[in-house]
Protein: Helix-turn-helix protein
Organism: Nonomuraea fuscirosea
Amino acid sequence: MVDMPHTDRPDLGEYLRRRRAALTPPDRPGIARTSHRRVPGLRRQELSEIAGISVEYYTRLEQGRAPRPSREVLTALARAFTLTDAERAHLFRLAGELPPEPLSPDSEIRPGLLRLLRTLDDTMPITVHDGRLDLLAHNAAAADLLGPLSCTGRYGRNIVYQCFTAPAVPDVLGDDGAGQLARAATAELRAALSRYPGDEYLQSLHAELSETSAAFRDHWERGEVGSFHSLTKRLRHPARGWLTFDTEVLHAPERDHWIMLYTPREPA
């Protein structure tokens, strides 16, 4: 009989012990809360009951003597420990597993990021999109530059939808820039659909564009997928004419937010 491979991951066991020690023991009628406890936190029996796994198996996990835990067990432990997304990802990595993808991007922007946008109103355009490619926020400089690209309707804040439906796209970006955006936006949509395969909004957006836009269908058939983080763009400002920007995209993975910075180039 072949033995199951053991975790051999002492860091995982140490992390489990520390998380268990940090939990508050449950209140139980007729039992003093911590009067007879010699160590802080939950007992292994209590934690295993919350997680729905056997105490014997959990004990072996803490001691590094158990077979490598499944993703289902890790998910149950993360739930029992009430871990944040970052803590859950750390738990999975300690066990040698890829962290689970979020079910959907966060719709709330960090207050510090909003303050940054306002601070740079007169310096550079900045936009923030979520993992569905919907615009969440922009500063005054971005509104001034990109306002003509806005659309109405359910998908009006979506960069892919704007790319293939906003009449002003060639005027703002030029023909080359419009083609570059169409290619990048389609590739980003394919990546978003692979990350959130059950997302109804993304699926319906794809169906809408596939039905109404021949240009989108052509780009989709190319099968490109990926992210375009550093590009040089020329955009036509409503009052100042053609301007050149170095664009850089920063990713906040815990919320799946994408921050695009438009750094203006000085005229040659």
About this structure: The beta strands are 126-130, 135-138, 230-237, 241-252, 257-264.
